[in-house]
Write a structure and sequence with these properties.
alpha/beta; three-stranded parallel β-sheet; 45% helix
C-alpha cells in the first residue's frame, strides 16, 4: 500500500511570533514531519519582506517540512471575481504565493474559487 505522509494544519494567525519556535518544537515532539504552509505567513512576507524566510529556516532547523499549502482565500483573493482585470491580479497574486511556497518545498496548493 502506498504511504501518504500526514500533513498538519495549524491556524498560524492565532500564534504570536514569540511562540512559533515553541509550536514547532511541540509539533516535532508529537511526531509531526509536515505542516501546511499558511497564507498568513505569505501576507506578512508581502508586508515585511522576510517573514517566510525566517519561518522556513525555523522549520528546516527542527526538521519540519511544508509539503502542502493552503491558498489565499477571501474576497480579495477569490478566483471567481466577476471583474476580469481584478481576476488577473488575483491570479498573479496566487502565482507569487505558489512560487514562494514551492521555494519552501511545497508541492500542493489548495485553493478555493470563492463565495460568489
Amino acid at each position: 500500500m502506498k504511504q501518504i505522509p500526514l500533513v498538519h494544519f495549524i491556524n498560524w494567525e492565532t500564534v504570536p511570533d514569540e511562540q512559533i519556535d515553541a509550536y514547532f518544537s511541540e509539533l516535532k515532539d508529537m511526531g509531526v514531519d509536515n505542516i501546511v504552509i499558511h497564507p498568513y505567513w505569505w501576507m506578512r512576507d508581502e508586508e515585511k519582506g522576510t517573514f517566510l524566510g525566517v519561518v522556513h529556516k525555523q522549520m528546516h532547523s527542527i526538521g519540519i517540512g511544508g509539503t502542502s499549502c493552503h491558498g489565499l482565500w477571501g474576497n480579495d483573493y477569490d478566483m471567481n471575481c466577476p471583474d476580469e482585470e481584478r481576476r488577473r491580479q488575483v491570479i498573479s497574486t496566487h502565482g507569487r504565493f505558489m512560487n514562494s511556497a514551492a521555494d519552501m518545498g511545497c508541492f500542493t496548493y489548495t485553493i478555493h474559487l470563492g463565495e460568489r
